[in-house]
Design goal:
Helix content: 25-40%
Oligomer: single chain
Strand content: 25-35%
Radius of gyration: 45 Å
Distance between the termini: 68 Å
Shape: elongated
Largest sheet: 8 strands, antiparallel
Amino acid sequence: MYFMVGWPKRLSFPYKTNESPHLVVADVARSLFVLLCRSQLSVWAARPSILISSYRASGKAVEQFGGYSFAVWRDDSGAVAVSTQHGYVLLFEVKVLGDKDRRVYEAVDHRGSPIRHGSPGVKDNARLSALSLCLAKVLDLQAAITSMVALPSVLVVATADGVLHHVRWDGLTNGTKSLHLCTIPFAMDLQSSRGPVLTGEGAHVRCLEFAPTLTGFAAVLADGRAGFLTAGSGHNTEQVYGVLAQEVSDGTCVAINSKYRLLAFGCASGAVLVYTMDIITGALHLSHTLELTAQDFPDICRRTGGVVFLCWSPDWSVLVVSWERGGLSLWSVFGALLLCTLTGDFGFSADGGRKDPMKFNSMSWGPEGYHLWVLSLRLDGAPCPANPSGGVTAEAKDQEATLHTELMLLQFVKSSIAVNPCMSNQEQVLLQGEDRLYLSCSHLREFANTASQSSSSPGSSVDSAGPVLDSGNLHGASFLLGHKHWHIIQIHNVYLDANWPIRFSVVDGCGQHMAVAGKLGLAHYTLATRKWKLFGNINQEQTMVVTGGLVWWKDFIVATCHNLLENQEELRIYPRSSNLDNAHAHICKLPASALLLNVFQDQLLVFLSDRCVELYAVEQKEEGLGPQACVRPLQRVSLVGCVAHSSLVVSVMLGNMRAEPGLGSRPAMQASVGESLLLNLAGQLVMLQRDRSGPQPLDSENGSRCRKQHAFCSPVVLADCVEALWTTGRPGQVLWDTGGHKEPAESAGPQVLWLGCGQGGMKVWLPLIPGGDIQRLKPCQLEAGKLFHHTLMCRRIMLPFPVVVYPLAVLAGQGLVLGATSETFTSVLPSVLKTGVAVQLPFCLPQRSFQLFLPAVLRELLARNLGEAALGLARGCSNLPYFRHALEMALHAVLEAEAAARTPVPDPLLPALAKLAAEFPGFLRTVAHCARKSEVALWDYLFAAVGSPKELFEESLLARDLETAASYLIILQNMEAPAASRQHATLLFNSALEDGCWELCQHMIRFLRAIGSGEEDTASAVVPSSSEVTVTSGLEFFRNRSISLSQTSELPTPLPVRDGTQGKVILHKALSVPVAPGAKRPRDCGDCVERLFLESMLSRHARRLLEASRIGDLARFSAHLGFELIGWLRSEHERSAQPQDYVCALHQLHRDFCWPLPSAPGLDGNKGAQATHSLPVPWQGESTVRTWWNREPESDRTDGFLPVCALSLSENPEAPIMQEAYLTPICKKVDEVSVGSATDMTESSSMLEADWALLDEVLPVPSLSISLQLACRGPAKANVQLRYLHHIFSEAGCIGWCLIIALVLQDLALLRLDIALASHSPVNMLAEQAKGLTAIEKWATQHCSGYKAFFMLIRSDLHFLYSAADALVPHTSPTSMVAGPAVCVDPPPTVEWDTNPVAYRSPNPEMEHIEKLNEEPKKEAKTTVDDYGLEPETYGCHIS
């Protein structure tokens, strides 16, 4: 409710004295303050905070009367009564010196001339009247004075002899009206028989306070007892009775809350006991206790000392408490802790050391509670104020080893709910300060709409409206954005200077328009335009005082005010779009002063001082001057029978909820009429329902056709200890889903009532789903619905639930409770500027906070066997992004409460909550996360309710939720045998490999290695022979080994073993391979078997990928898991590393890399399109390329298998590509050419400009080849990836895949090189390659014109490959083995054969160059010879 902001303000004393003030007291209006020293009395102004007048007693007077001890103000601020230590009462008169225009501080211009009153730019508040203090009367009461209370006409003074003196303000006393405590009987209630009287030393009052709404005094006796004294008629002793508070035995002070009728007694134990009085019996019942708990303050809660001061805020919403040993705390009405200076940055310094708590011996609230005037004590050892020159004052040196008092102003902001309860209908948090507003908008969609409308309206600026939000991005996040920071709105200085302080503030439903009301008049602000609107006529502003608050109705400001000119109470409605002027306002006169104002749909609700409620209907009409609103009275409701005093009503509102259906059902068309009247009566929530049992009466005054509103029934108490209430459920808003059935958008949905109850948390009054709604449940929800279904005895239920934030707003549709806290920041000032205040108190800022109420409400519903309502509520909130987290929080809370209980829970809640959570997707992940965040000891209880973790693991695998399955694997690791964990890990590893979850695969590899090398084997097993340790028997072998799950690193970690002889820790690896008795266990055997098993799994998956022609996934698999792809391909080059079906492999490459099918240049566009569509690849033009290009990779790495240089090539996909990369052998005059590894080619190879020029000269590219390459160009990233894969397969000797990749790239030089390398392949591989190319050529002839043209271009090269294959297979005819397609009608080129069966001479210069390279002898020993006897060559990559 109240939140500290900024640093405290330190006020210095302008007079020189060694005395420190010990008391600060404000007058009734809180505009003047009295500071009391031992011999000095001074009067200060609230704004500006300066000294006005001072009175200093002479030494003789101090010696005669004694030092000043207490002081109180008269109601009109015209006199101050001061008590002395010797039993005297001094009455001082406060007078204005001279005329009213005489000021203490005069404003002057630059020439020194005084500025007249009313001049622009001059603050009138600074023109303070000069006051004088003069001693008028001296009264001697003949006894020490212990307390004083000021009443409107008399002054009640308590003395140490047990007498309550009645002293008039004119100095006269009446002995007959004095009360002797020893003659007043005390009992436990007012209905008991006459109780005993007080005797002994405790028969006098230590502290006394007057309670106007209780008509009596609250007193703390000298012996520590506390009670209440009723004020009899005429203050007759025989009519005064005393009621004792039973639990108070060490009372120190008392404070009374007149609005909530609470009596707060401070105790010597440091606690504050808050009592309420029973209206019927008059007994004092303990309401709640304010104390620091050991849970929140374990080291300080018992060391605070006794309570020394209590003070309620001006609006009676918070209580400030200070303790004897230091510290200050702020509590809400019913016990919610808002602030404490004993913890956090208040109690600890930046280096972690504990600060000495500041001691506050006196406090008083400023106007509207924006400032708290405090007197704090500090030791002289604390840093002293410094002179402007930088040294310490001489007075500070003379006052060493003494206590010094500082006068400080603590600054606060407060929620507008405290003074304007109509804010409870909104969903925004609005804090009002002395000169600014703090607003947090929650409806960004409405904000965007309003901002766009405002920016498009005439006279508005687009820049001033701020950034307009995209409505498409607001779905699902309209309540999440803007919840961290505030919109800080500075109140207009012109209005603030004349009408400080701000008393009321309000914001409209969309959070775009604010209105404030100060001492006089009002003003409103628009967030979109950043502009204030004030009264154009200052006289109209100065003649109205807002009394009952402000409220927004559509685009109109509604205010109840007092007209100073006519002395009349009025209801005014001002349109927002028009100028702020009475000419545009609709004015309605009120019969009495308005205290509260609220709105419900199109009805206004006004609570008057005569304890009546006026209901008005509001209508909007269009006139020539703009939109206008008018009101007409509907009903007058008298609350005299249930409201004892008008000031006891905290809030009043209308609603459409009903407690029971017994009073007749209302038609749907009358939903706009308020069904119930809700009153917060001194903390008790009272509801009055309309009586619809009879016919609606006729209105005789307005004619027979008009009908009166139904009367209200007797009040019903719904709850107590209520601080604030909110209603949610606007038209079209449904709190929960009822199986697809929803109310129409134009009808009023069921209202939900939310109550803030202080330290009792919150309460919600929920409407329950009728029993017939079970038939509308979905089939998948029918079982749970039948499980929870039962007959409902009532329509609503009140559910309490705890909250950790102080509630300021409720977002029911998002499941959130919004609040605020005071965020602290340690002081960063230089040491020379750090005074005692800056060192002790940190800088404070209000901070937004929120809490999910859904977990607590679900638990409360299930605890009351209302599973159907819980299921409906959960379905209504299931679309929230944090719904699964809410279920997890509910499971975790119930699990810890029930599993950790010392005694068995008779009716456990966890099974019902688990069945509820199982009705929603993500149940498996919810349970896994709940288990991972709980202790292992609680897992048995959890899985006994939700199911076996093994079954949940298998369900996660079936659902392909591998992350959740990994969580269950960790759970199974601690609950089952090691062999079972190994089997589960193997299943999960295989699934992760299939789905390409590479990060999970890495974790699984480390997990499996940890299982295999973690623990000594304890089972007697037979050691398998070396022949049995194979890939196929690896899994069977693991089942006979013990495991340990303590090893989590990727590499086997040595285990520490304690040496018994020397006490040293020796590291060695635990062996997991079982050995025969007496045999020596080999240390590396277990690692070898583990490595063999993992390699077998990885090889099996790689083989599966290669057989499916998924070479892109194979490359990612190798890069992420560190799989040696080249070595494995070399070992498999005669088996799975050869393409099984060349045509299918070609299709798969086009699909995986989104590479377009080539089209022949010069062909018709329709034919090319037809040829393209003949292959089912996901290629539909440039948009598809961009989609594939911009898609996110599956892991953090870019596509997973590109080397460093390849990644650098694909960083800028939008850059224009002038020419593709051509891989050609580099031919120099003397240097030998060798083919390097793929790693060298992609990471470290480079070519000089001369090499590129030589390449262009030696290997010219035909123009037809360039045109073909440009026609079939694919994404740049895919181009780099394919060329990298070509290097990999080329180095591994997989020429078949190299041919397919070269065909996809349409790289003529690369393909001719591959054909040359293929001619040296073994017989069976050469035959398969020739057969595969023949199949592709045949398919291209029939389906793809682009490939057909390319095959025509390489016809001579293919003929050479076919001839080489025929030559190596002499018994097979060429036509029967590698017959080409029938469409190749052109004669083949002339080929000259020599003695080498695989060599040839062709007119093609490129092939002649390759032939020469193949015939060169091996000259260097470094050259690596591959399996086919071919020297590797060095290739450059020309990319421009």
